[in-house]
Amino acid sequence: MTEHSPAFISAVPVLASLDMARTVAFYVRVLNAKAVYVQPGEYGIVSLGGLELHFWACQDPEIPKQTSCRIQVTGIAALHAQCLAGNAVHPNGGLRNQPWGTQEFSLLDEDGNCVTCYEDHPAT
């Protein structure tokens, strides 16, 4: 039997939540996510098409303010407009081209988690 080299398949961000029902409802409202699991005071999961975001219950309001993740998307301009309409774009996270070849923006959830959405965008 030959051994196979390890391969990374996917990653699932796990963010802090101060109020599980409110956190899940935010992602459902702003990103049109599907609520997969909600256990108040324990754990939550939302599905965004081919990926999931998980949430753990947290009591310290400073922890989510130090938490972030990056999600690769397509249709970044439309998603940015959707998040603007939902009043969820981070005050310093507007849509911009980055020198490393992405176009991205950040949203800020009601707990303080920062989620940066990005799309490959060749630098010009």
From TrEMBL:
Q: Does the keyword NAD apply?
A: no
Coiled coil, from the record: none
Q: Which UniProt keywords apply?
A: Antibiotic resistance
The protein's superkingdom reads: Bacteria
**What is the protein's species of origin?**
Comamonas resistens
Q: Does the keyword Nucleus apply?
A: no
Family named by the database record: Belongs to the bleomycin resistance protein family.
Q: Which InterPro entries match?
A: Bleomycin-R, Glyas_Bleomycin-R_OHBP_Dase, VOC_core
User: What is the protein name for this chain?
Assistant: Bleomycin resistance protein
Domain VOC span(s) in chain numbering: 7-120
